[in-house]
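Running co-folding for zinc ion.
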Amino acid sequence: MKKTLKSLLIFFACVTLFGCTNEEIPKDETIQKEDIVYITKQITHSEAGGFFGMKTFMETATIENVTYCFEKSVSEEDRVYCIEQTSKLLENIDTGKDLTICIYDKTTYDNEYASDGFVYTSVRDWQSAEYLTVILRAIYGEYCNYGTAYGYANYLLGNTETSDLKFEADFEFYDLNDLCFHPNFATDEQIDIVKSISTAFVKEYIKTNGEESFIDILKASGDVKEIVKAKNALEGFYEKNGIKTELPTIIFGPGGEAFDYTVICEYASIYIIEDFIDTGASYYPEYTFFDGFLNNNYVKTMDYFIVNVEQMKKYQYHFGLDYYDNSLEIMFLNNTEFSIYFSRPVHQIRLNSIISFMHEYIHSVTMLDWTQETEKWESEGLAAYYEFLYNEYALPFWYYDRNNGAEIYGHTYILDYIEKSGRPVETVDDLRELDNIYSYLTRKHGLNYTYTSGASFISYLINQFGEREVLDYMLVHHSLKKLTDQTFDELVEDWKDFLEENYWEYGRK
Ligand SMILES: [Zn+2]
């Protein structure tokens, strides 16, 4: 938008103020409030994840390709200053699209959010790199890497002087994502370093490769399919500065009003609520595993998502689900009302504990074409059976729970098992055994009594007929005849006999 302010003054020829005609407005002319014509409109603002939305009557004015929307209480002075400064910021940017900039009173909306062509924020410093960063995200992609956009904002503002950069091999924040600028994750000093690195990176990249190539990198940084290009560019910059680092290909972006931040990966968009309190913490206060690291510990948070994204990939591969469309939303929420579940109609997972991620994910990849008639042993049994497979975060908790929490639910059979084996519960196989023992003890309630009984039955089927065959039966053709000549009821009886034969000792009082 390489227009001077002169051409912005298109609505009212109130230029008599300066005693000259419209064409003769001096270059250093500032915009006057009388020049702006407002139309009142109801503006809807809703954020990704669907947990925040509002409708507000706002006064809107379109100047060139930018529509400004101000909440009524925003003063004339602030409005004029905003339009004037924003126009200046946009002078050197080829936006390539119309922009809508919505400015709220801080009491209505004290945040910032960008989506394709739209900026939502409150009255702020209109000359700041931070404000330009959110505009750049509205233009080039809302999930653009924060540091890359921020560095470019400084480049456009001519603020390219950086203090001496300190590159340290063990610096945690080289990814330059939103969390690296987040006061709950990084100290002020670390944020200053990240800002300097961002600015130096962009300056250096544009100097070497040109601005057009940089724009490609900026766009790639917010697109999960292209992010590897941005990652390579940033890794190249570090290598030149003597630092070898492997950056993730997961995007950490803004969370808007409802969430602390967003994580975008190949398989899902994940939203983390502010001050997430893991439900595990109330049941196991002494077990520090549930310490709420998702809102304050950068290294643990990065590890958690890197590991879980890798596990999602493994589960997809394991179930052979090429058709799966990955439009899944996953939310870490505090409201216990939401509890933990996967909702098929909206294709959304809601979690209240870090350890439930894979269980619900298995539901999401296995339940998609199942019907209302799908029984608990199938849906929950499958999730409970497979969550043992790739679950780096749940396994240590289960070990802890079985060895220390056995008495919580009066599960004395676990203590019996520990006593019998003469050692603590250790391996995945032990946990499978405990599933079978519990299923034996509750067998009279049938197959759909607990998740565990379903898992035990599936485990039995897999041992009898082979894993691929059982998965095909459960997920693909649903035809028992293709698996066995037995009836379903006969199979269930066989499973109960198996439990009886192997675990009868646990039934003794
Ligand atoms: Zn479940």
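Result summary
The CA atoms of residues 406 and 415 lie 7 Å apart.
Residues 359, 363, 380, 383 surround zinc ion (CB under 6 Å).
Job closed.
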